[in-house]
Amino acid sequence: MRSCVVLCLLIFMFVITAEGTIRRVPQDYAKIQLAINASIDGDTVLVSEGTYFENLVLIKKIVLGSYFIIDRDTSHISKTVIDGSTPRHPDSASVILITTGTDSTTVISGFTLRRGSGTRVFDSWWNQHWRCGGGIVLLAGGARIANNIIANNTLITSDAVVGGGIHVWTQEGPIPFWIIEDNKIINNNIRSTSVEAEGGAVHLTEQGRFNNNVVMNNSVAGVNYGHAGGIWITSALGYGSTYIELSNNYICGNTASHSGGGMLAAMNGASGELTTTILTNNVFCNNSSSTGGAAIQFQSGIHTLINNTLANNNGPNTVRVFSTIGALVMRMLNNILWNPSVSSEYVVGSGTYTRTRYSNYNCVRTGLTGTNNITGDPIFMSGDTLYRLSQNSPCIGTGISSDVLGGETWFAPPFDFLKTPRPNPVGSIPDIGALEHTLGVPTDVDENKSYPFEFGLSQNYPNPFNPSTIIKYSVPVSAGANNHSSVQLKVFDILGREVATLVNE
Q1: In a 10 Å sphere around its CB, with 0-12 CB exposed, 13-18 middle and 19+ buried, how is residue 83 labelled?
Q2: Is 343 exposed, middle or buried (0-12, 13-18, 19+ CB in 10 A)?
Q3: What is the Cα–Cα distance from 88 to 86, expressed in whole angstroms?
Q4: Can you tell me whether residue 78 is helix, strand or coil?
Q5: Quick count: other Cβ atoms within 10 Å of Cβ 352?
């Protein structure tokens, strides 16, 4: 019989207010765009539940949100719908267009964005028109796009087409930084009837974070080629190198008529600017492509994969790499590649530039050279859509907390896909894959939750905020014990000066 100490999570919430006007729709403004037009930087446009047939243009540093940003009730998201199916002009048919005047303090949160058909732009680099961004198109500036459902946007055209759900591109100016997190990007479809199509769900470039998203059942097809049923990543033309972190994403059931069923990351041949990606704790499953890279295809650049699970994808191979545009560096640590329907899990394609791979502590069905890689069946839990490990899996306790890959030390993420501490239990050896096995956790504890073993201060939400934000902190207390924790919570300005004490007890 196992004994354990059950921990209770004490959560405290405080609200900090800031200057700025709240503009309510439809109470104060009949249309969302009217509220946006009346706003100045720092304002909040707060939208009540309902369906709004609008195609919005956003050029300000404001918060655009449903009542989700007030009470965090996720039911607001599906009930606050912006429908882009009735644009004033068919070439301006994205649900939301973001351009100059914005930055990462521009927030879009708590909506369902649907039935957009994209914005048509001319790209002088390629000397052709593109239709892009059915749900959101970000052409300059920046934004934080969080806690939205971006679904059922369809882009079918004879033009080149890209980014069914979200399109990030430096069409009208640089994009210093963007954040896309906690969204469901599902059932978006793009197709070109004459040329190429790329990124059924999203197209990303420049600098940003793509975290905690569900990217599911999106598709891409084109005549010349159809790349990246889920995520398409490229370097920016003329705006410098691209660096993108992708963590804790569930990328499942996406299809590409050519390569990169789940994702494709490439350097841009027209500019040669470097593309760097870091992938941690992602699950790629049930994606498909016809020509290669059923889960992922990399075309030059520097790419690091740590504690990802790539399972049950369908196509000629799971991961395919090229060095046709520039040098390729691959780092792989603690990953599972287990896709029985493919002929090979990792394939090196053409290219005259150097190709270097460092791969340690991975589980790869068809084998992989490196240190401590294994080929045994990971033995996933039967019927589990997250591909968690069964208790007799050879991937349990056979990973590593840190290792040197190509002269650099890389670390396993401290938490797994479900925010369970890694390793689990603390002090053991990490597992291979995106999810730590929960063997050893008391059976009366919900395995989908993480429990605090120390004081914790969570990220405030919303952030950036206007006019208020919620700060949560947690204190672990042994059940049944008469313990008390002394807590101080203070706010400091950017110069390090104390401006407020919120808690001292």
Answers
A1: middle
A2: exposed
A3: 7
A4: helix
A5: 7
Cβ-based burial of 207 (10 A; exposed 0-12, middle 13-18, buried ≥19): buried
Distance CA 332, CA 259 (A): 21
Strand ranges for 437-467 from DSSP E: 456-457
DSSP 3-state assignment of 77?
Answer: helix
Which tokens go with 165? 């759900």
Looking at residues 371-393, what average pLDDT do you find? 96
The neighbouring-strand residues paired with 80 are 50
* Strand 488-492 to 498-504 pairing: antiparallel
Q: Which amino acid is present at 367? A: G
- Reduce the DSSP state of residue 38 to 3 states and report it: helix
- 212: tokens are 């905690």
**Cβ pair 382, 426 in contact under 8 A:** no
In Å, what is the CA distance from 407 to each residue of 131, 309, 379? Answer: 42, 25, 33
Q: How many helices (H) and strands (E) does the chain have?
A: 3, 51
Instruction: Give the total residue count for the chain.
Output: 505
pTM for the model stands at: 0.85
57-77 exposure pattern, b = at least 16 Cβ within 10 A, e = fewer:
ebbbbbbbbbbbbbeeeeebb
Q: What is the mean pLDDT of residues 76-94?
A: 97
- Spatial CA neighbour of 32 closest among 17, 18, 53, 11: 53
Structure tokens at 108: 């879009």
Strands 336-338 and 309-311 come out as: parallel
Pick from 331, 336, 338, 318: which is nearest to 276 by CA?
A: 331
- Say if residue 158's pLDDT is above 50: yes
In this prediction, residue 477 has a pLDDT band, given cuts at 50, 70 and 90, of very low
